[in-house]
Amino acid sequence: MKNANKERRPLSRLVQARLQHHWSQRDLAEQLETSFVTVSRWERGVMVPGIYYRQRLCELFNTSAQELGLDFEIQDEESSATVIAPEETPQSETQRPASSFPLWSVPYRRNPFFTGRESVLAQLHTTLKQNQSAVLSQSTALSGLGGIGKTQLALEYAYRYTSAYTAIFWVTAETAESLFSGFLALAELLNLSEKHDPQQQRIIAAVLHWLSQHHDWLLIFDNVEEIGLLKAFLPPVQQGALLLTSRKQAFDFIAHLLQLETLPAEEGLQLLLRRARWDEASSSQEEEAAARAIVAAMDGLPLALDEAGAYLEATRCRPSEYLLLLQTSLLPLLAERESYAEHPLSVTRTFQLAFQQVEALNPEASELLSVCAFLAPEAIPDTFFLEGASTLGSIFVTLAKHPLRFQAALKTLLSYSLIQRHPTSQTITVHRLVQAILRARLSPTDRENWQGRTLVTLTRLFPAEDVVPHYWQVCERLLPHAQTLLTEEGYSQEEESDFLLLMNYVAGYLRKRSRYAEALSLYERALQRAEQIFGREHPLIAYALHGLATIHLEEGNYSEARLLFEQAIAIREQKLGASHMLLAVSLSGLAVVFCQQHDFASGRLLLERTVSIFEQALGPANPRVALMLNNLATVTLQQGEYEQAELLYQRARRIIEQHQGADHPDIAVGLHNLASMAARQGKYEQARPLYEQAIAIYEHTLGPEHPRLAFPLGGLADLLVLQGHYEQAEPVCQRALTIRQQAFGPEHPTVAYTLGVLANLYRGQGKYEQAEQCYQSTLHVYERVNHAELVTVLHDFALLREAQGRLEEAASLRERAARARKDTSKSDSA
User: Fold this and answer.
1) Does this model's pTM top 0.85?
2) Do 98 and 50 contact (CB within 8 A), yes or no?
3) What are the two backbone dihedrals, phi and then psi, of residue 664, each rounded to the nearest 5 degrees?
C-alpha cells in the first residue's frame, strides 16, 4: 500500500524537467508522439508512463528514471486485457521495477491507431507464455493476407506486454540478407564479442547461443517468406518465445498457426473513425451509415481501412463523400498510401507484388486466381475448376487430369494467403479487394476473356431442371456465383446466349425455392434482353415466356399463364420442331392450366402428347417421363378412372425409385397423389400413411418449411376433417397454412384452399365465427381469379349458414354456386 500511495503522487521532477526545457505539455506530447492529455495525466499522477514511454522520457531528457521520479514499480501489462488508449497504461499494482528496461530492438513506434483484436492478443499471449519452455512447434505464427494486420498485431503485442519479457528482439525475415542483418544488429545490441567476426555463421551462432542461455525473451520474425531460410536462425533450445508473421499458412513443425481474419464490422468502424480522427459522437446517422458502408466495401481489411481513414483526415471530406468516390474510383483510392510508415505499401501495390510472385512461381495458380476474380468471393467450389475444365481452358484440363498439380496451384495461392481454403466444404474464399485489384490488373482483352469463360462454364454447370441428381445442392452452391456474373456487362455476342440461359436457369431455381419476386425480375430481364438482341421469335424468348407463365400458374393467374404458355409453345414448335422436349415442357404447363380450370379432357390430351415426346426422346424408363406420368395419372384420377390412374402412379414410382432412390422428392409427389386417390375412394386408412410418408420425405429432403410440404399436409388435414378428427387436423392445417402464407403471401389460391379446409374444420367443431372468416377470405381470392374451386366453397359456406339457421343467406350462396357452375361449364365448352 505504501508503494501504491507513492505512485499516485504528482510527478514533480518530470514537470521540472519539462519546464527547464521551456516546453509546454503539448510540446512534450509532440516530442513523444502522444497527446497532451496523457502528459497531463502523468504529471498529475492520474496515470503513469508505461515502460516504453519511461524509456523515451529518459532518452529525451538525457537523464535516469530516478532523476525523473520514474523509479517506481508498474503493473505487468499482461495482467490487463485492455488499455485506456494506445499510449496509456493504467496505474495499478506492480510487478517489475521501471529501471529494469528490457533489451529492445523493435524498430517501429507503436501504432497509435491500433484497434480491436483484443481476443487475439489475449490468445497469443496465453499461447506464448505457456509454451516458453516447450518445443519449437508450439511457437506461434500470425498468418494472413497482405494488409490483414500481422505486423501491426505483433508490434502491439510487443508494446503491450513489454514487461512480461527480459528482452524483445525484432528481425525482418523476408530474405536471407535481412535475416542476417537482423542477427548482426542483435549481436551489437547484446555486445557479443563475435559482433565484428567476418564469418556470418559465427555471428548467428553467437546470437543463438545467447538465446539458449537466457530466459523470458521474445524473438519476433517479421514477414517470413521462406521457411527453409528461417530454420538456420532458430535457437536450438527455446528459453523464450518465438512469434512469426507471414502470408504462409503452413509452418511444418516450427510454429502453431494463428490465422488472422478481417476485422468485424464494429472494430472496422472504430479503426476507420479513429484513423480519420472523426468524432463518432457528433456523426449524423447518414455519416455513420456511410462509414459502415466503407467498412463493408473494404471487407474489413485493416490496411484498406487505414488508407481510407488517412484520406478522410487529409482531405477532411465526410464519409458519405468518400463513399461516392469509392463507387467510381476504388482502385485509385486503394493505390494511395500516406499513412503509417511501418507499412509503406498501398493495398494495390501489396496485392500486385503478390500476384507477380505467384505468376512467376506457378502460372497455373495465377490462372486459377484469375477465374476466382469473376466469381462471388466466398464458397467457390473446387468442383467448379475441375468439372468446368473443358470450357475454362487447357490449363484447367491439365489440372483436372493431374490432381497433384491442382493441389500445387492451391498451395501456391495459400502460401501468399491470396485465398483461404475450407477442407470440409472443399471451397475457396477470396478477399473482395484481391478480386477488384486482380481484375484491374488484367488487360481489357484478358478481362473479357476470363469473364466470358467463367460465364460459359457456369452456364454448363448450373442445372436447367430439377430432374438431375442433387439439383438443389448443386444450384445452391453455384447460385451466388451465377448472380455475380449476371450483374456483369460486356459479354460478346456469342456469350449472350449463355448469359440468357444462365439467367433463366437461375430464375427457375429461385422459382422452385418460392423466391418469386427475384425469379420474376430475372425472367422479365431475360425477356427484354433476348428481344433486343435476338428478336421476338428466338427460342430464348420462349424460355422466359415459359418461366413467366409458370410463375403466373403457381400464383393462380390462369388466364395470364395460359396466354404465356401458348406463346412459348408457338415459338418452340416453330423453331425447335414438334417432337422437342422443351416443347413438351410447355405443353405440360398448359395442361396444368387446363386442369386447374377443370378442363380435364384438354389437359389429358396435352399430357398424353407430352409423355409421348419424352418417351421418344429419353426412353420409357426415364425419371422425366415419370414426372409426366404422375401428372397424367392425376388428370385420369380427376376423370374418375381410378384403376388407370393407379397404374400410371405405380409405373412412375418404379421409375423414380430405380433411378433416384426411395426418398427422392418426386417419390413424395406420387405418394401424395396415391393418397388423394385413396381418399376420393373413401379408403381413409390407406390414404393416411401415404400422406405421412410424403410428408416425411419432403421434410428430410427439402426442409420443414418448403412449399411442396404444404400439399401432403393440406391433404392429410382434409382427410382428418372428413374422418371427424378435428383436434388432430387443426395443427396440421395451420402448419400448411403458415408455410403457404410465408411462401406465397395471403391471397394465393393455395392459401385460399387451405383456409377452405380450415373453415370446414371449424364448421365441424361448431366454431362458426372462425369458420365464417375463413370462408370469406377463401371466396375473396377465388372470385378474384375465377378459381375452379369457387363452386365447392360456396356450397360449403351455404352449409355453414344452414347450421347457423340463416337459411336465406344459405339459399343465396347456393344460387351463386349454381351460376358459377354454369359459367364454368360454358368455359369448358369454349
Assistant:
1) no
2) no
3) -75, 145
